[in-house]
UniProtKB/TrEMBL annotation, chain A:
Protein name: Ni/Fe-hydrogenase cytochrome b subunit
The keyword Cell membrane appears for this protein: yes
UniProt KW keywords: Cell membrane, Membrane, Transmembrane, Transmembrane helix
Domain of life, source organism: Bacteria
GO cellular component, one term: plasma membrane
Any one biological process term the GO annotation gives: anaerobic respiration
Native species: Paludibaculum fermentans
Transmembrane segments: 12-33, 45-73, 85-102, 122-142, 163-187, 199-218, 239-255, 275-292, 304-321, 341-359
InterPro entries per the UniProt record, alphabetical: FDH_cytochrome_b556_subunit, NrfD-like
UniProt family annotation: Belongs to the NrfD family.
Pfam family, one: NrfD
Automatic annotation (TrEMBL), chain B:
4Fe-4S ferredoxin-type domain mapped to chain residues: 3-33, 51-82, 83-112
Keywords: 4Fe-4S, Iron, Iron-sulfur, Metal-binding, Repeat
Annotated GO CC locations: cell envelope
Chief place where the protein resides: other
Entry's Gene Ontology molecular function annotations: 4 iron, 4 sulfur cluster binding; metal ion binding
Superkingdom of this protein's organism: Bacteria
Pfam families: Fer4_11
Organism this protein belongs to: Paludibaculum fermentans
PROSITE patterns: 4FE4S_FER_1 (PS00198), 4FE4S_FER_2 (PS51379)
Subcellular compartments: Cell envelope
Gene3D superfamilies for this protein: 3.30.70.20
Name of this chain's protein: 4Fe-4S dicluster domain-containing protein
Length: 392, 247
């Protein structure tokens, strides 16, 4: 396929996904949740919660992971990727908020937890943390905008108060990334023993850190392709090592937990749970083994494949906990309706699109230390910029 | 003094008067077709279920420490001192976590509505706290469903089992289940044979999430100290450089 054709293909796909999702949105808000989902009293949560919200928050974990690595641990080598990670996180959280609007029965009341308190509720805590953390991400994202606009003074002021903001962001993330696992602690008899565990919050937290790293590698690769930048390859290699270790820690914990709970014996039971479990573990173990091999770490293509496999493994785990692991006890079989899939696809596509735009128009792939130039730069290459943003 | 419902399935003849009384109370339609639906939904808050010659009732169990009330982020569901678990639709934002969390799959949703509400039995909270009885108790001509004080009903249930050991399976469903419920059930056979979930744990569910949630304040404090400390250690070089620049 030549370049022009490829551009048309992507542009066309994006337009179709968006148009279908527009119709799905109409169905959702005009006819209600019953008409737009395959949810039921027996199965009240589907992929809008399981994928859009749970995976969305996890896939946006690079923001706090990289912020901690660079600003708390002071590992300067990672500076080059901290901005794309923060941008992804900010976009991710905005998309999660939009997705939540689709899933809530009465979305115009989304602010209720802020004034109607129930401190015993995990969802209450998650609501607060996500709200606060999205504000923190906005502040972490702001320097890119200020730089672009050449607002030196504001940029400097913000820089001076950034440390407490970053620490707050890491704490808020630690709380709600783990709390998303705690959400399912109340289901000891509903959630299949391969996934129900008192360790859920810890497993969610560790897998979120791994996913934050994986997403950062994933973005670096895509940006390098899209913008013709040199892939920060030594840095990516470094991250690949870290990722391998985090996956190893995660899988060790996962299996120790299964062993101590005696849940491994359920693998003898017929049913599709064991295959889904196998899929989840393979999708995480294979990339881990790949990353431990030097041959993989020398090959950008192989790193990319491993990263995508791991991200799929992460998504499989989250969906097993929130959707498939609950089927057996619910007594019904849930398959998402076309409207659910359409909205979810549109979220992902829109995320890619906005990231691409932001990466082009803002100083995302530049070192943090950039002092803004005190005048608004003129985009002489506006036409070229537009064509890039469109994916030419 | 908390109130409870005792449902003795050995006395139930499956006449469905309780269903009709409940529908009337909620101003819901009731007809042959709805009577035949043996499951609860947003238009049928209690149901009789048929198991061959035997019958059982499904309604909200009104747990002593309800999972639904503990997980609701806006406290739309509340356990009242009188016993009923009540729902405030003005608070609800429709996250449906209560439906996910309920070990008995009780809360239902108005899936077809544009602005849906959760629906469930509320143990006639307009009457019971004042000493009245529920509509289903009132409608039952066989004494299969009665309303009373929880401890007195447990004593009564024990007495029935002791008096007629042949007629009863020797256990009261709802005394231990999820830490105790305000609906108590008697049966002639093991409870799972007439549609009751016997796999539920014997302790209150909210403790499970609280185990994790209680650490939140400590994580905030410890996290701040730890990260501030790591930052201070890891930025020593910059600090030294700044000092040397000044001297």
């Amino acid at each position: 396929m030549n370049n022009a054709l490829r551009t048309y293909f992507w542009r066309g796909s994006f337009a179709i996904i968006m148009l279908v999702a527009l119709y799905a949105t109409f169905v959702r808000f005009y006819y209600g949740l019953g008409a737009s989902t395959n949810l039921s009293d027996q199965f009240p949560w589907g992929i809008w919660v399981g994928f859009d919200v749970l995976c969305g928050v996890g896939l946006a974990a690079g923001g706090f992971t990289l912020a901690a690595i660079v600003h708390i641990f002071n590992l300067k080598a990672y500076k080059a990727v901290v901005r794309p990670a923060i941008l992804t996180a900010f976009l991710g959280y905005l998309l999660v908020t939009v997705a939540l609007m689709f899933d809530l029965g009465r979305p115009y009341r989304v602010w209720h937890p802020l004034i109607m308190w129930n401190p015993r509720s995990v969802m209450f805590e998650v609501g607060w943390c996500v709200t606060l953390y999205t504000s923190v991400l906005f502040l972490e994202f702001l320097p890119m905008v200020l730089e672009k606009l050449g607002l030196v003074k504001a940029h400097r002021v913000l820089k001076n108060v950034m440390l407490p903001i970053i620490i707050l962001g890491v704490i808020l993330s630690t709380l709600h990334q783990s709390s998303l696992g705690s959400v399912f602690l109340i289901l000891p008899t509903k959630l299949h023993p391969l996934w129900y565990s008192p360790l859920l919050p810890v497993l969610f937290y560790v897998s979120a850190i791994a996913t934050g790293l994986a997403m950062t590698i994933f973005e670096s690769w895509h940006s390098a392709k899209a913008f013709g930048r040199q892939l920060e390859f030594p840095l990516v290699q470094k991250m690949t090592r870290v990722l391998a270790v985090v996956i190893a820690v995660y899988l060790t914990m996962r299996f120790l937990d299964l062993y101590h709970r005696g849940a491994l014996s359920t693998l003898n039971n017929p049913g599709w749970e064991r295959w889904l479990f196998g899929l989840e573990i393979v999708l995480m173990a294979v990339p881990m083994l790949m990353f431990f091999r030097e041959r993989t770490r020398e090959n950008p293509q192989a790193i990319y494949v491993g990263t995508v496999l791991f991200l799929l493994g992460f998504v499989t785990h989250r969906l097993n906990v929130s959707v498939t692991g609950l089927e057996a006890s619910s007594g019904v079989h849930y398959v998402p309706k076309w409207t659910e899939i359409s909205v979810t696809l549109a979220m992902v596509a829109f995320g890619f699109f906005v990231f691409r735009m932001a990466a082009h128009y803002l100083p995302v792939f530049e070192a943090e230390e950039h002092q803004p130039v005190p005048e608004v730069p003129v985009l002489e290459d506006r036409a070229y910029a537009h064509s890039l943003a469109r994916g030419d | 003094m908390s109130k409870a419902i005792l449902y003795d399935s050995t006395l139930c003849v499956g006449c469905r008067q309780c269903e009709e009384a409940c529908s009337t109370r909620w101003k819901l339609p009731y007809n042959e077709k709805i009577a035949a639906e043996e499951k609860i939904s947003s238009h049928k808050l209690t149901t009789i279920r048929t198991f061959g010659e035997k019958f059982s009732r499904k309604l909200c169990m009104h747990c002593q420490d309800p999972a639904c009330a503990s997980v609701c982020p806006v406290a739309a569901l509340q356990k009242t001192a009188a016993g009923p678990v009540v729902y405030d639709e003005d608070r609800c934002m429709g996250c449906r976590y209560c439906m996910v969390a309920c070990p008995f799959q009780v809360p239902t949703y108005e899936w077809e509505a544009r602005l849906p509400k959760v629906r469930k039995c509320d143990m006639c909270s307009d009457r019971v706290p004042g000493g009245g009885v529920t509509r289903c108790s009132e409608a039952c001509a066989y004494g299969a469903t009665i309303t009373g004080n929880r401890d007195e009903l447990i004593a009564e249930a024990r007495k029935r089992i002791a008096d007629k050991p042949k007629d009863y399976y020797p256990k009261i469903y709802g005394v231990e289940e999820v830490g105790g419920t305000s609906v108590l059930i008697l049966a002639s056979v093991p409870f799972d044979q007439i549609g009751y979930n016997t796999k539920v744990i014997k302790t209150a569910l909210p403790a499970l999430t609280w185990n994790a949630l209680q650490h939140v304040p400590d994580v905030v404090v410890m996290g701040s100290v730890l990260m501030g400390g790591i930052h201070w250690i890891s930025h020593r070089k910059e600090e030294v450089a700044r000092k040397e620049g000044r001297s």
